Amino acid sequence: MRARDTEEPHRVATPLELLFDLCFVVAVAQAAVGLHHGIAENHIGEGVLSFLMVFFAIWWAWMNFTWFASSFDTDDGPYRLTTLVQIAGSLVVAAGVPRAFEGEFDVVVGGYVVMRLAMVTQWLRAARSDVDCRPTSLRYAAGIVVAQLGWVLWLFLPEGVQLPGFVVLMLVEVATPVWAERAHGTHYHRHHIAERYGLFTIIVLGETILSSTNAFREAIAEGHAGPLISLAVAALVIVFALWWLYFDQPGHLRMTTLRASLTWGYGHYVIFASLAALGAGIEVAVDYDTHTAHIGGVPTALATTIPVALFLFSVWLLHVGPSNECRPIAIGFPVAGVLVLASTFSPAPIHFTAGVCALLVLTVVLATRGHAVDRP
Description:
By secondary structure, the chain is mainly α. The protein contains 12 helices and no strands.
């Protein structure tokens, strides 16, 4: 298991990586369902907190595998088997998500620990095979083991200190790569990483596509054709616009240093979580229009406008940059984010949000007309 060439031509996602993503999206879907029910039943605080905690486990395990694979993917038997164990762990996490939204995190933690300990096996194998990266690999393995012991002990903490304990262990997890990479940087492939993140973005966007489909289905079944079809169309416009805005600027150009790469990689927690939450928000809007939600119009609107605004601000910071030489784009993203939040109080917040996103896409197209863009 030797480090791969950082400039390897034609490096693309493997079938195993695609299977890995497909199985992880099951856990994402379960988290979105839990958030949807939490908001619709007016348990907003508990639902959002549980969603953020569960989504951290999903995202962090996915991200660690993705960066490791970019550096050390050998695609041999042991590598495949260890990855399949991680996939099995993700399905355990998915199975435990409903319990987590009820305050019981034992199954989620169990699946998460399985995934992370399988990652320890990968790092120890890399340490044995690659002398140059051995200090880094051993640091990764040690940091992961310490964190997993912490997660198991976390289950036995009193309820009142579980949230502070979660924050501490989360910081241990996110600090491990920073500490490990200082020993000797791993050989990640920038184009490969950008493609992997893009693929996962598309998969999470599928959650909102599913929500739009449910709106059409409800319209046909319940006879609310006008409002729900209009809602579904607006949701699709939002999805198409967010896809356009994310992929308009190539992500690999932002990974110029280790610090920039970590910022870019870590910042995608907000992008992925906001997209998953958007799907839940559209479902809440469907419930509101069919009079089955137990919340008012403003909280219903916020379930959509906050995720969209967070997505726009995150893409602006990670892909566009506040100092982007194309000023209409550099200014357009934050302005659009503010307008989306303001649309919460409009007569048709989701439709107004769709209009703002479409206008931002038009701004990007006109501002970059005639300029060549380096594509991944």
